[in-house]
Amino acid sequence: MIKRYLVYVDGRVQGVGFRSFCMTHALEHGLTGSVHNLENGLVEIQIQGEDEEITEFLKEIQKGNRFIRVDQISVKRIPENPKEKKFRYESGSFW
């Protein structure tokens, strides 16, 4: 079943390649959506796909890497977007 979530990520997630990291993992799991930096230092992700794939995606981004540190993830279910076909990396940063 296709679901869509709005995700806010807090930690060392701006200026460390986190958006590219998210895009890589979203594509690996066949997910659609977008990722972008917010002015308050958080990163916003909209993620859509099979629930099991989203769960795996969230586990992977939670782990981070040697540059990325995720302190907190907030997840909220939102309405699906049936017309969405890809995952977008929205440029621009505030760090």
Order of helices and strands: EHEEHEE
Strand arrangement within the widest β-sheet reads 4-1-3-2-5
The CATH topology is given as: Alpha-Beta Plaits
Low-pLDDT stretches are none
| Count of separate DSSP helical elements | 2
Fraction in beta strands? 35-45%
Computed Rg: 12 Å
**Total beta-strand segments:** 5
Which architecture would the CATH scheme give at its second level?
A: 2-Layer Sandwich
The profile of the biggest β sheet is: 5 strands, mixed
- Cα(first) to Cα(last) distance is 37 Å
What is the CATH domain class? Alpha Beta
Mean pLDDT: 94
| Global structural class | alpha+beta
* Overall spatial form: globular
Query: What is the helix content?
Result: 25-40%
Give the gist of this structure:
The chain is α+β, with helices and mostly antiparallel strands and 95 residues long.
Explain what you see:
The structure is a single chain. By secondary structure, the protein is an alpha+beta fold. It is 25% helix and 40% strand. It has 2 helices and 5 strands, in the order E-H-E-E-H-E-E. It has helices at residues 18-28, 51-63, and strands at 2-12, 32-37, 43-50, 69-78, 87-89. The longest helix has 13 residues, at 51-63. The termini are far apart. The model has no long low-confidence stretch (mean pLDDT 94).
